[in-house]
Specification:
Length: about 160
């Protein structure tokens, strides 16, 4: 009888430890403010197709990291990409141009690959403090010579609390 009680206690302890472990994984994750992806129709990103992402900052005392997310096929013909990012806070707009390297000199893609598609999360702003709480918007447009820019399948933003 005592052996059965000890066995039951051990099972309960194992279940409790497993539950605490799984819970700690979720608690330690960095919460994201927004994680968006917009599919580019026919993999043809035109100048006029601005990807607009509205979001809300609830605590401007915290620092945030902002990433440009990109997915393209192996048929994308450049080793880089230029984008314009328009940061809007309702009153004013600030535009910044970014260039990101997507491939090594030998042509090997730097993004993580899944079949014929390569994904990137590229830093735009790190440890950024928003000036106030409230609603903001970031609008992304492609700034390459080609219009449309071919073989871009998805574009998005990831905004998360900095650690």
């Amino acid at each position: 009888m005592a052996q059965k009680i000890n066995l039951l206690l051990n099972k309960k302890q194992i279940i409790l430890l497993g539950f605490l472990f799984i819970t700690s994984l979720f608690v330690s994750c960095t919460p994201s403010v927004i994680d968006s992806n917009v599919e580019i129709a026919n993999r043809r990103w035109t100048y006029r197709n601005h990807i607009s992402t509205p979001f809300e900052v609830k605590d401007n005392t915290k620092a945030y990291n902002i990433y440009f997310k990109l997915r393209h096929t192996a048929d994308y013909k450049y080793a880089n990409i230029f984008i314009l990012a328009h940061f809007k806070d309702g009153k004013k707009m600030i535009t910044r141009r970014y260039q990101y390297k997507l491939a090594k000199n030998d042509g090997e893609w730097l993004g993580s690959g899944s079949g014929n598609v390569f994904s990137y999360s590229l830093p735009m702003l790190t440890n950024h403090h928003f000036p106030r709480n409230g609603k903001f918007e970031i609008e992304i447009e492609q700034n390459m010579r080609d219009n449309p820019l071919l073989e871009v399948s998805d574009v998005g933003l990831l905004i998360e609390e900095a650690r």
